[in-house]
Design brief:
Elements: H1 3-9, H2 21-48, H3 54-58, H4 62-70, E1 78-79, H5 82-89, H6 98-119, H7 131-148, H8 150-154, H9 164-173, H10 180-199, H11 211-226, H12 228-246, E2 272-275, E3 281-284, H13 286-293, H14 296-316, H15 322-337, E4 345-346, H16 348-356, H17 364-379, H18 388-399, H19 408-414, H20 419-431, H21 434-454, E5 458-464, E6 470-476, E7 480-481, H22 486-500, E8 505-508, E9 514-515, H23 517-532, E10 537-540, H24 544-554, E11 560-561, H25 566-571, H26 575-601
Parallel strand pairs: 6-8, 7-9, 8-10, 10-11
Antiparallel strand pairs: 1-4, 2-3, 5-6
Helix pairs in contact: 2-12, 2-16, 2-17, 2-18, 4-15, 4-17, 6-14, 6-15, 7-18, 7-20, 7-21, 10-11, 10-12, 10-18, 14-15, 20-21, 23-24
């Protein structure tokens, strides 16, 4: 099959057209740089997810290969992230071998859901998650992830968990068991990581006169700053190796043995065994496993898609195909589940490293995958000396920048209403759980949208035509009038009549482009009620489609005008309105005379 035909099935192959040696070198450098970042992060995120460290590496190589074949944005790197690891950790705490079984099954289901979203063109669902809700969600998860790593940072034993309140209660209840070695190493690691992160923004090359020396120094600083996670993990591992070889009691809690070699290619398990009460083994069938995963089967894929689309838009612009990105992400998870992967998505931090490294094609992800596979084959025995405090430091120093305080001020100035869904998401995510917090935040946003549709803003004013005829102008500010709003509109017109007196009603439809059936029938009822009171109702600047909808729904020909001055020529031929108008004028004149007499007598 020719390459052109294969490109239809595997769009990523288009990168091979004109692929030069310079491209290969650039991709190789970027792939190795990203690999040095993903190795410590993969180990740390697996621990965060409640799995053995090797599962983080299993999750780090399949996505790079699949995305290289199917993806469209060269900067995107697929792999484990702190957010998905946290959401996975809610289902991996049942003991025995159930943790990997649940994590891998969740990866498969996430891929299937994402593929269904791609087929059904449902990628736009992520648009229901507004920026304030996203900020509240990511900030809450950053706090939860950071606090969940306090045990590793302080040298406390036990699982980190994903429950903010219980984690904090456990940490404060065991402060007397803090290990000085772990605490010192953890704090030093965080300090070094933050300083090295800041290092690349410091301009020290101006002090060097030689241009070649400046380039060499600038490149060295960039490499050290970019590979800071690997550097800190390497140094702390060497320190732990030397200390734990010479001392009977190791001053650090170590990661422990990491299974070496490649993962076996196999189907995810559809049944498992958990540890029940009194240490009994309780079998779980597929239905019970799905029941345990619950809302995560839908929420986790949506969050993964949201993150991946955001990264693709940030680096690739608006020309990318969301459906193609969905397919690439879904197959990364589906294929990864056969290699013991936990759920994966695009990583913003590693994608930024990839971009800064000068990657030219997604093939750079293949080089990263090769590096991860080499690490699994050759370096796994040495991973056991990595202190957990160092991995906790890697996670904490990464997630603290996910807390977006800077969004609060502009939101407070521009749209305070939008702060409420974000605050609900943040607080409820910490108090109850990230899934419930996200749902409540989205629900609050949708409630505001429904309220705006049900209670459109109506501008009411009493005006006059050129010849002095009075009329009441009703101008809706929304482009649609749907069934929840029609009673509100009718009520607004009634209030306008009672406030401004009887006059023709002009409904400005210049910005109204849609009616639903119920709203159209409501307009028909309103027209009949006003007709009984001899109050004519006119539609001004109504689109032709609006007239068709109203006619088909009510069998009423609503009078339409292009401007208010057209009222006079139409009302001249309306006998009922003329009589009613004269009667009103007579009543108003009598009322005016009576008012004058009352004033004079006083």
């Amino acid at each position: 099959m020719p390459l052109k035909s294969l490109s239809v099935l595997l769009p990523g192959l288009k990168w091979l057209h004109g692929y030069t040696a310079q491209d290969a070198v650039a991709d190789l450098i970027a792939g190795i740089t990203v690999g040095l970042t993903v190795l410590p992060q993969g180990l740390a995120y697996a621990t965060l997810a409640g799995l053995e460290p090797q599962y983080g590496l299993y999750s780090s190589f399949v996505g790079g290969i699949v995305y290289a074949l199917l993806g469209s944005c060269r900067q995107v790197t697929i792999g484990p992230t702190a957010l998905l690891a946290l959401m996975t950790s809610r289902h991996t705490r049942f003991g025995l071998d159930s943790g990997p079984a649940y994590g891998i099954l969740l990866c498969l289901i996430s891929g299937v859901v994402e593929l269904a979203m791609a087929v059904l063109k449902l990628g736009a669902l992520v648009d229901l998650i507004s920026l304030p809700v996203t900020v509240g969600f990511t900030s809450a998860t950053a706090v939860i992830i950071g606090t969940s790593q306090l045990k590793g940072l302080l040298g406390l034993k036990g699982g980190s968990g994903s429950d903010f309140i219980n984690t904090m209660r456990s940490v404060f209840g065991n402060l007397h068991q803090v290990r000085r070695g772990d605490l010192t190493l953890g704090l030093l690691s965080i300090s070094v990581l933050l300083l090295l992160r800041k290092l690349k923004t410091v301009n020290v090359t101006n002090r060097v006169g030689n241009l070649r020396a400046q380039q060499l120094l600038r490149g060295s600083i960039w490499v050290i700053s970019t590979g800071r996670n690997a550097l800190v993990v390497l140094v702390s591992s060497v320190l732990a190796y030397s200390q734990c070889k010479s001392l009977d009691s190791c001053p650090f809690i170590l990661t422990g043995k990491v299974k070496s070699g490649l993962p076996s290619l196999a189907l995810p398990k559809f049944e498992t065994t958990i540890l029940g009460k009194n240490d009994t083994h309780v079998p779980q069938n597929f239905e019970q496993m799905l029941s345990e995963l619950g809302p995560s089967m839908l929420i986790l894929p949506v969050i993964a898609v949201l993150g991946n689309v955001a990264i693709s838009k940030a680096f690739g612009g608006a020309g990318l195909s969301p459906t193609r990105e969905l397919v690439a992400l879904s197959l990364s998870n589906i294929c990864g589940s056969f290699c013991s992967s936990m759920p994966v998505t695009g990583s913003f931090s590693r994608s930024a490293v990839n971009h800064a490294s000068g990657v030219r094609t997604p093939i750079g992800g293949c080089y990263t995958s090769v590096l991860v596979l080499l690490a699994l084959s050759l370096l796994a025995p040495y991973f056991q000396y990595i202190p957990k405090a160092a991995l906790s430091a890697v996670i904490i120093s990464a997630v603290i920048f996910m807390i977006e305080f800077e969004v609060i001020r502009p939101l407070w100035r521009c749209s305070r209403r939008e702060l409420l869904p974000g605050a609900i998401t943040f607080v409820m995510s910490l108090a109850i759980g990230v899934e419930i917090g996200l749902l409540l935040g989205v629900g609050a946003d949708v409630a505001f949208l429904v309220y705006r549709a049900a209670r459109p803003v109506l501008t009411v004013s009493k005006l006059q035509t050129i010849n002095g005829m009075s009329y009441i102008l009703i101008r809706p500010k929304h482009s649609s009038l749907y069934f929840p709003a029609i009673e509100w509109v009718r009520s607004g017109i009634s209030k306008a009549l009672s406030t401004h007196g009887t006059a023709p009603i002009v409904l400005d439809c210049a910005h109204v482009h849609d009616f639903d059936f119920t709203a159209a029938r409501g307009m028909g009822s309103l027209h009949k009620e006003l007709a009984k009171a001899n109050v004519p109702l006119f539609l001004m600047s109504a689109h032709k489609d609006i007239g068709v909808i109203l006619k088909e729904s009510t069998n009423i020909d609503f009078p339409t005008i292009d401007c208010p001055n057209d009222l006079e020529s139409i009302l001249e031929h309306t006998t009922d309105y003329e009589l009613h108008s004269k009667m009103l004028q007579h009543v108003e004149a009598n009322a005016s005379e009576l008012s004058k007499l009352t004033t004079n007598s006083a």
